[in-house]
Amino acid sequence: MSANLRILVLDDEPIVGKRLAPALAKLGCQAETYQDPRQALERLDQETFDIVVTDIRMDEIDGIEVLERVLKRSPRTRVIMITGYATLEVARESLAKGAFDFIAKPFKPRDLLETVVKAAKDLGVSLQLPEPGLAAEA
Amino acid sequence: MAIVLISSWAEEARRELAQAVAAKLGCPSLSREDLVERATEAGIPVGKIEIAVMKGSTPRERLARHKSRYLAFITAAVAEKARETQDLVYHGRACHLLLPGVDHVLRVGVVPNQERQLTAVMTRLNLDRDKAQRYLADLNEDLRNWFHFMHDADPDEPGQYDLTLNLGHLSPESAASAVCSMAQLPDFAPTPASRRALNDLWLSAKARDLLGRDEATAGADLTVTAQNARVTVTYMPRQEAVAQDIPRVLAGLEGVGELVCTMALTNVLWVAERFEAGSETFAGITDLAQRWGAGVELLRLPGEGQPMACEPAHEEDLVCRPKDLDPTGGIEDDLPAAAQTSGVDDDGMAQVSQRLISRGIFAGSQTAASASAANLANHVKGQGRYSLVVIGDVFASKAAAARVRQTRELAAAVAERGHAPVITADELQSKFLFGPKQMSRLGLYLAATLAIYLLAFTFQNPINDFLAGPDWKAWRWLATAAIVVSVPAVAYLYGNATGLLMKWFKFE
């Protein structure tokens, strides 16, 4: 089932998706990346993803709204929040609203992979972390 | 007028009060949230600190350096704004601790209206009452951990504030009036001395901030102080290379009258099986190191039966860690092995290292492969590197007699290798520091010395007769014996009294 794990990555900085997609592919996941939150939400309305990785601070629609929309449509989906402006208050708010985990930028792709592996395990899917070497920071 | 620092974990409560106070006083206001945004943009990973405190994940040594940068940035920004505008209202989570030593600062603590806070959370986050209560409880726990980590202080200590306001019993308007009245008291009026203190604080924080931003100096353990525009930067001997970069980094800093770059003269080596940041030994060693301008190096001895794995690291060091607690688990990581301390029971070494880094006196840490005297030669450096070695808690699992013997052997081995005086933690206080015991001894010695001099001057004639008078001519040997005994006794009492007095006034 690992090869079928579907992940949506949403971050308004294109470099984030570019760097995370290959790392997630090494984990055997199918990753779709978006920079525009509206397009991402449209896609989320059409398709159910196993894991959503979303930035919090974006223009027009913020990550907390994405989290709420995703969980409303698919409570099974695990949502991982990422942000460069993390605070205890925002992290606790995300967790209180049902986020699976919270990662502060800058982080290494491996940090995200470890969280994805945990989220997959929570969904009953076993994933194997690839060999180290993904040191570049997102 | 005073600089008003309004401190509370409840952002809404402090923001509301700060805005009301600033409006009444007609002065600018600034918030932690404004500065955190700027700090993040300046490359300080504030978010990582927050989340690491919440999760307890990032290695403490790295976290301590981020913390140091963050505190320098925030202090510099608040002090700079206060210098520009003369008066300022600033609000933050623990901002009352930001400008120590500046007398024209009014430090206000705010206790929010609990019910109002809960209702606001329920509305803002769209949570039911139970979830909102759990959210606030979790958040307050995180904030307590953050406070401890960031400021090494107890948030419940009331003496930190000049004024504490309970908004459960006071409207924001009334609270603002109380703050404004107090801010205008002459006790909080700026003086030339308090302005100078603010300027020095700004200068040292700004210098620390600049040094933290430069690639060449960012990773160094530096102590920065400023006094009357004279900035002193102290670096550790193991980081000597940064000395040439410090003047370059601080070249453009306005207001520096004189820049002094100095190497920590020496190191104090603390050898122990277990380290405690809150212990008397820690307090004594850091006090001593700061007085001597020394760094503190930690050498951890493994407990009995704890197998260690060692590998050569940078310079001539060996890095050892418990085999069964190896955090890599055979999987390599991006961090150097020596930096991985998180999640491992390292007998308090990471926590103590973090505290030492915060004070700018961390000179390195290592774990010995075993506690045997022969093995220690690999870890204790010679060539007069240490001015003092303190043996803390060692051989805890041994019986008392064996512990004393092995501690003595260990002290001898360390002294031989390190060419430095070796003392136990118990001796630290009596030999180098001044506490209640030393105070009572000082009282005794001073009283005895004064009594002897008083007697000698009160009874001069009988004493002269005894020493040289005709009545005692046949007893000259007794006078000689009395002098032989009394002169060293007086010298002993007087010497101890003056020695303790010098220790009290910190004259080395």
Report what the structure shows.
Chain A is an alpha/beta fold and 138 residues long. Helices cover 41% and strands 18% of the residues of chain A. Chain A has a five-stranded parallel beta sheet with strand order 2-1-3-4-5, with helices on both faces. Chain B has four domains: 3-193, Rossmann fold, CATH 3.40.50; 221-263; 267-328 and 339-432, Rossmann fold, CATH 3.40.50; 436-504. Helices cover 49% and strands 16% of the residues of chain B. Chain B has helices spanning 11-25, 32-41, 46-55, 60-85, 114-125, 129-151, 172-183, 192-213, 245-249, 280-292, 349-358, 373-376, 400-418, 425-432, 436-458, 460-468, 476-504, and strands at 3-7, 29-31, 88-92, 105-111, 163-166, 222-227, 230-235, 258-263, 267-272, 295-300, 308-312, 318-322, 362-367, 386-391, 422-424. Mean pLDDT of chain B is 83; it is low at 313-343. Chain A binds chain B through residues 83-89, 91-93, 95-97, 102-108, 110, 129, 132, 135, and chain B through 11, 36-37, 40, 45-48, 50-54, 125, 127, 131, 134-135, 138-139, 142-143, 146, 331-334.
Provide the residue-averaged pLDDT of chain A: 89
The CATH class label of chain A is: Alpha Beta
Q: Level of helix content of chain A?
A: 40-55%
**Can you name the CATH architecture of chain A?**
3-Layer(aba) Sandwich
The coarse silhouette of chain A is globular
Low-confidence stretches of chain B: 313-343
**What is the total domain count of chain B?**
4
Strand percentage of chain B: 15-25%
Number of helices of chain A: 5
**Largest pleated sheet of chain B:** 5 strands, parallel
SSE run of chain A: EHEHEHEHEH
Beta strand % of chain A: 15-25%
Total domains of chain A: 1
Structural class of chain B: alpha/beta
Assembly of the depicted chains: heterodimer
- Please state the average pLDDT score of chain B: 83
Largest sheet of chain A: 5 strands, parallel
Structural class given helices, strands, pairing of chain A? Answer: alpha/beta
The total strand number of chain A stands at 5
